[in-house]
Design a protein that fits this description.
mainly alpha; 6 helices
Length: 180
């Protein structure tokens, strides 16, 4: 059973990794929509496999689906207060996905790789701090005189989130390789 769970986790993480990588291509004109859909399907396939292993992955899957719904609504909303609220909700849901994927994967890596378990914790904390700061910046953008500093801090946090995102992808890949 333990070996089956590890193999299923490895397969799920591989699907999740490639889904995330392909979804990054969604910014490319013409190919973007197709890449976004393919990436989403692969990620969902990964979460379906992972959710058979642990309730932590089930939570990640639920938050991922919720984030997808919020993102679709946000795509048709024309900014303003509602747009900002949806952006904050999406950030929090994304944070929950990372938390549960990191926790679930660390659980599967127990007794196999202390290094990857520690990396899971580091990535989660990096996402937590950058998300909190980013949300604070979104809220401070509406305050006169503070909004310029908030925008600058948001640019810095975007870089931190990019680094955290790369670390997350490398963690998923390394975890997949370790568990396979």
């Amino acid at each position: 059973k333990l070996m089956d769970n590890r193999m299923l986790t490895a397969e799920g993480l591989k699907n999740l990794f490639w889904g995330e990588i392909i979804a990054i291509c969604a910014v490319i004109p013409l190919l973007g929509t197709i890449a976004g859909i393919v990436g989403m399907v692969l990620s969902i396939l990964g979460f379906v496999k992972l959710s058979r292993v642990s309730s932590l992955y089930q939570m990640a899957f639920a938050f991922e689906v919720s984030n997808l719904v919020v993102s679709c609504i946000n795509a048709v909303v024309d900014g303003g207060f509602l747009g900002s609220a949806l952006q904050i909700a999406s950030s929090l849901l994304g944070l929950a996905v990372v938390y549960y994927v990191c926790k679930g994967t660390a659980e599967q890596l127990q007794g196999i790789s202390l290094n990857l378990m520690q990396r899971a914790h580091t990535i989660w904390i990096l996402y937590l701090v950058s998300t909190i700061v980013m949300i604070a910046c979104i809220l401070f953008l509406i305050v006169p005189f503070v909004n310029l500093a908030a925008a600058l801090l948001m640019a810095i946090m975007a870089i931190v989130q990019l680094v955290a995102g790369v670390m997350y992808l490398v963690f998923i890949w390394n975890s997949y390789k370790t568990l396979a």
